[in-house]
């Protein structure tokens, strides 16, 4: 709302009881709002009412400030650990420089890279969240901008709609967008129909009336009300504004969208990563404390005097050194590359889904799709085509008392979609010809091609009749002639139009429930063609036309037969229309549309229409429906196989919805659905709503309003379900926003629904959702593979640093090297694991529980074993270089380095007290290292070759470990590396990057490493390869014990659920 609205609109909604204008007659409404139809509201009164009710516009909610959005990005455990590690390492780098050390760029690479990761992560997060409120903006586009109003007794055209107040008298015509919620006071035309499907979910335009309805009517039942944002498709009427702005039905939707957007939850994966981050924080804290306790003797010493510790000595330099080791531990334990790899994998997933017509608007929703347990689907336009089509044609038989029925194929407005079964092509009898003529000429709608599909112009039921005429074809004697150059879509209709011209229309009205047209043939012979409700036409019909064109009387038995056929079609949720005609029109024999003709007076008064449309000749009827999509039945079977429940929530009426649900397989053809099919109102009054929702199989909610949809989604989520909600209308937007996955329709969907959704279906097809769920499951499995891979790598790094600290040897790898491995070397293989082919039975398994562990106890044990081996291998190769001239027949003495004992290496801090300790110079690449001035420096700057070997072993092990991650329990024998060629390419890229920092002098200096020779590379591969053998043994054990582990896990989760 505007300023006035913000002050008073919400107040009036809460404090004033809503006046039920729909249950009061016109006079009571005028008295309540102190207004008359003729004079409207006075200018002075308008100002007073605006002060009270505010402007007729939707509220502008204040979005989150940019600072709040930035702070929210750091409300994540992993991010906070990274931030602390970055700050500490930056302070240490600065401190080292100030203490007289070299202020080298290497010291600052680590904190700067971590800060860069955090900044990129925050920018992406802010961009995604700032898009969240666009649904509210799109809702404002639906509002009418202008209205024609009666004020001070004068007609005011084009008044800005936001200036309307309750009590204003508004004139509505065809094509107008309704500017506020209004009570219909008077119909000027015989009928008024409003398209309100976007707000209520109804598949057809609704006829409006002046008559009162019960006070407890649902929104669809309020036939005497028109609602803001809907469109008048037929007629002309006078209305009175009853609710404006946020008090209108569309305003309530706006409030519900805003409320739902405040309740958005993290995706299941985000929750798991947060839990993992919290555990990681604890583990890092414990390990850092252990490292300090193990090494406390190096920076804090004391002597015992009389049994008590005295003479404490503290070395600040060594204390900061071990603090740096603790920081290295933090860097090693955090998978810094994980956010980037997850984003990349989800982005690749969105591309795959886009190829299947599912356009993902929010990246995390790709993963959430994989654990969807319930799909709440709208009916109209999702399960059905939202295109009315004739499915049955009933014509008169060859003799009195007989009928013929033809089934009609096709589910769209395309004249080429399907055909009429058992149709006498080109040999249409007189009875069928008359049906075709009436359907083509007693019709104000059309069909035209728009891109690759056909759309209706005008009323959908009439457009369906035009398509039927095309499928019927033309009888012998009639040909396309000069119509061949016209639009091919409606060529047959055009031929009928050319044979007879329309000279008058008897408009449809709710009393006689029919529409008639008077046509003039080329021979100047007049006839009346009528279509309408079958019962009403039969009452006014006295004859029938047989197959050969003979006219015979319509007796009561024949009427009963036709009514029986009508009942059968109606119970199949078909909307039935009858056809009749009359050729004896003495009053119109010379009428040609001239206003001066005496017959014209008869047409000006609609009360004459029933008399004109009497003594009719009945020819047949059709059953029309919004047909289900062909592929939906299979998609629902796939959902059942995948353990996903389907619930249909629609604004349409109960009978129609139940018939469609039986047809598409939500319910069985003979299943008792009395407990599974409720109206929205019945559900809200249900004594045990949660137990109703827990029923197995499909459920149906008809006549559902926006609040009903929201409540169903909320209850399902409370029960631990992961809910995907589909919808296309404004009425669906709040539930789309509230659901774990909101799915909007791309073709028929309103902008409001699209902006509130997480995913948009480019083809409006339910089966696309099912395909997207399968893709989501595959992506989640792949993400699980690379998350485990990266975490196992990090466990290895932690084990390496911990062992280094525990053994007291010099640190093998510095933080910047670990950061390089985590970010760059691990990145390509982890991303490539996102390309693992999906399991063939992926949609045959039940959905994973949203609280399933990302890492089970068995997987954690496996990776602790692997991690321990990584630690032993990296520390072992470091010790081997210092203590052995050769290993397993590989000569390592070629560089001339000095060998030391393990005892010397473990006590390197006491080097200055060793007498006669000397070290020979050694070469590495083109560099020579000399320690004549300080032999003890051999354990610091001289460890560069040993450190390079440790780093190379770590990189090689992680490349081999990525092969292990191809399958959780499958051996490399059954799932060889080439099933994912991208992984082999990624391994090549990672090795290439490692060679780059080894053999480019500048980069080698930045990372504190030197080039390796062939023998040293051989040692690296021999030490790294056993990781594959160890994991193959662990996988074999895993396969052998999988049944036992699965049953115990099921019991645990069942116990938790209970």
Automatic annotation (TrEMBL):
Gene3D superfamilies: Calcium-transporting ATPase, cytoplasmic domain N, Calcium-transporting ATPase, cytoplasmic transduction domain A, Calcium-transporting ATPase, transmembrane domain, HAD superfamily/HAD-like. It is a multi-pass membrane protein. GO terms for molecular function: ATP binding; ATP hydrolysis activity; metal ion binding; P-type calcium transporter activity. Keywords: ATP-binding, Calcium, Calcium transport, Ion transport, Magnesium, Membrane, Metal-binding, Nucleotide-binding, Translocase, Transmembrane, Transmembrane helix, Transport. It is an enzyme of class 7 (translocase). Residues 20-94 form the Cation-transporting P-type ATPase N-terminal domain. InterPro entries: ATPase_P-typ_cation-transptr_C (IPR006068), ATPase_P-typ_cation-transptr_N (IPR004014), ATPase_P-typ_cyto_dom_N (IPR023299), ATPase_P-typ_P_site (IPR018303), ATPase_P-typ_TM_dom_sf (IPR023298), ATPase_P-typ_transduc_dom_A_sf (IPR008250), ATPase_P-type_domA (IPR059000), HAD-like_sf (IPR036412). Pfam families: Cation_ATPase, Cation_ATPase_C, Cation_ATPase_N, E1-E2_ATPase, Hydrolase_3. It comes from the Eukaryota. One of its GO terms (cellular component) is membrane. It catalyses: Ca(2+)(in) + ATP + H2O = Ca(2+)(out) + ADP + phosphate + H(+). This is P-type Ca(2+) transporter.
């Amino acid at each position: 709302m505007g300023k006035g609205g913000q002050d008073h609109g919400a107040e009036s909604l809460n404090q004033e009881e809503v006046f039920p204008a729909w249950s009061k007659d016109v006079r009571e409404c005028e008295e309540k709002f102190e207004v008359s139809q003729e004079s409207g509201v006075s200018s002075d009164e308008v100002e007073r009412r605006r002060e009270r009710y505010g402007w007729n516009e939707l509220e502008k909610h204040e979005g989150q400030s940019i600072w709040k959005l930035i702070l929210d990005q750091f409300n994540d455990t992993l991010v906070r650990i990274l931030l602390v590690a970055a700050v500490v390492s930056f302070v240490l780098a600065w401190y080292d420089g100030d203490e007289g050390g070299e202020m080298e760029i290497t010291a600052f690479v680590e904190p700067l890279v971590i800060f860069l990761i955090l900044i990129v992560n925050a920018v992406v997060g802010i961009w995604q969240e700032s898009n969240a409120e666009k649904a509210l903006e799109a809702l404002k586009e639906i509002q009418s901008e202008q209205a024609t109003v009666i004020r001070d007794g004068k007609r005011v055209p084009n008044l800005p709609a936001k200036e309307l107040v309750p009590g204003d008298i508004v004139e509505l015509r065809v094509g107008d967008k309704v500017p506020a919620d209004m009570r219909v006071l008077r119909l000027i035309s015989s009928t008024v129909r409003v398209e309100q499907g976007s707000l209520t979910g109804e598949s057809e335009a609704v006829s409006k009336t002046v008559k009162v309805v019960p006070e407890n009517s649902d929104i669809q039942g309020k036939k005497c009300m028109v609602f803001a944002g809907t469109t008048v498709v037929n007629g002309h009427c006078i209305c009175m504004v009853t609710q404006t702005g946020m008090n209108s039905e569309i305003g309530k939707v706006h409030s519900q969208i805003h409320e739902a957007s405040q309740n958005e939850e993290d995706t299941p994966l985000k929750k798991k990563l947060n839990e993992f981050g919290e555990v990681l924080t604890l583990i890092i804290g414990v390990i850092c404390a252990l490292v300090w306790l193990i090494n406390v003797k190096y920076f804090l010493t004391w002597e015992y005097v009389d049994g008590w510790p005295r003479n404490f000595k503290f070395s600040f330099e060594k204390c900061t050194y071990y603090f740096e080791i603790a920081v290295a531990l933090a860097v090693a334990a955090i998978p810094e590359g994980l956010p980037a790899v997850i984003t990349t994998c989800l982005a690749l997933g969105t591309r795959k889904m886009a190829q299947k017509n599912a356009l993902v608007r929010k990246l995390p929703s790709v993963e959430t799709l994989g654990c969807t347990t319930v799909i709440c689907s709208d009916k109209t336009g999702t399960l059905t085509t939202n295109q009315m089509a004739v499915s049955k044609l009933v014509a008169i038989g060859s003799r009195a008392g007989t009928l013929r029925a033809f089934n009609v194929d096709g589910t769209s407005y395309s004249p080429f979609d399907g055909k009429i079964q058992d149709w006498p092509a080109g040999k249409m009898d007189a009875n069928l010809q008359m049906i075709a003529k009436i359907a083509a000429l007693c019709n104000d709608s059309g069909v035209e091609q728009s891109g690759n599909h056909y759309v209706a112009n005008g009323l959908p039921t009439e457009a369906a009749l035009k398509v039927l005429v095309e499928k019927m074809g033309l009888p012998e004697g009639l040909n396309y002639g000069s119509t061949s150059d016209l639009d091919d879509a409606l060529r047959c209709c055009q031929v009928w139009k050319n044979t007879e011209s329309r000279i008058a229309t008897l408009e449809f009205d709710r009393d006689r429930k029919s529409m008639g047209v008077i046509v003039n043939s080329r021979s100047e012979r007049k006839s009346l063609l009528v279509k309408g409700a079958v019962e009403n036409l039969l009452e006014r019909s006295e004859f029938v036309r047989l197959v050969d064109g003979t006219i015979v009387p319509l007796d009561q038995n024949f009427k009963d037969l036709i009514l029986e056929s009508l009942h059968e079609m109606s119970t199949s949720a078909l909307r039935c229309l009858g056809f009749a005609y009359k050729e004896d029109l003495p009053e119109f024999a010379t009428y040609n549309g001239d206003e001066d003709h005496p017959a014209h007076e008869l047409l000006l008064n609609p009360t004459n229409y029933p008399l004109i449309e009497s003594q009719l000749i009945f020819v047949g009827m059709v059953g029309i429906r919004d047909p289900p999509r062909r592929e939906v039945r299979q998609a629902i079977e796939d959902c059942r196989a995948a353990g996903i429940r389907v619930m249909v929530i629609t604004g349409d009426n109960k009978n129609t919805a139940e018939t469609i649900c039986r047809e598409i397989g939500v319910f069985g053809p003979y299943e008792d659905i009395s407990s599974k099919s409720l109206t929205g109102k019945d559900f809200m009054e249900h004594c045990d709503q949660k137990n109703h929702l827990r029923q197995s199989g499909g459920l149906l909610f008809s006549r559902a309003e926006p609040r009903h949809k929201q409540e169903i989604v909320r209850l399902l989520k409370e029960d631990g379900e992961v809910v995907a909600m589909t919808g296309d209308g404004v009425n669906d937007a709040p539930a789309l926003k509230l659901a774990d996955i909101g799915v909007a329709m791309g073709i028929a969907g309103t902008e409001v629904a699209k902006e509130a959704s997480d995913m948009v279906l480019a083809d409006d097809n339910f089966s696309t959702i099912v395909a997207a769920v399968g893709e989501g499951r595959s992506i989640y499995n792949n993400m699980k593979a690379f998350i485990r891979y990266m975490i196992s790598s990090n466990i290895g790094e932690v084990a390496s640093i911990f062992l280094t600290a525990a053994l007291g040897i010099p640190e093998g790898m510095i933080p910047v090297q670990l950061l390089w491995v985590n970010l760059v070397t691990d990145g390509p293989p982890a991303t490539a694991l996102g390309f693992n082919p999906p399991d063939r039975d992926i949609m045959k398994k039940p959905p994973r529980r949203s609280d399933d562990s990302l890492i089970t106890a068995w997987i954690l044990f496996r990776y602790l074993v692997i991690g321990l081996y990584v630690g032993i291998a990296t520390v072992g190769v470091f010790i081997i270089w210092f203590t052995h001239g050769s290993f397993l027949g590989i000569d390592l003495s070629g560089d001339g380095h000095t060998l030391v004992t393990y005892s010397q290496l473990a006590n390197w801090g006491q080097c200055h007290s060793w007498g006669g300790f000397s070290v020979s110079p050694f070469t590495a690449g083109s560099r020579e290292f000399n320690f004549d001035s300080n032999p003890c420096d051999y354990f610091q700057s001289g460890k560069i070759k040993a450190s390079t070997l440790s780093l190379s072993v770590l990189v090689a092990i992680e490349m081999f470990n990525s092969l292990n991650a191809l399958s959780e329990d499958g051996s490399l024998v059954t799932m060889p590396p080439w099933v994912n060629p991208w992984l082999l390419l990624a391994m090549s890229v990672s090795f290439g990057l490692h060679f780059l920092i080894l053999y480019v002098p500048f980069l080698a200096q930045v990372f504190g490493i030197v080039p390796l020779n062939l023998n040293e590379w051989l040692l690296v591969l021999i030490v790294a390869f056993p990781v594959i053998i160890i994991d193959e043994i662990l996988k074999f054990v895993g396969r052998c014990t999988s049944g036992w582990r699965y049953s115990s896990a099921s019991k645990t989760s069942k116990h938790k659920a209970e």
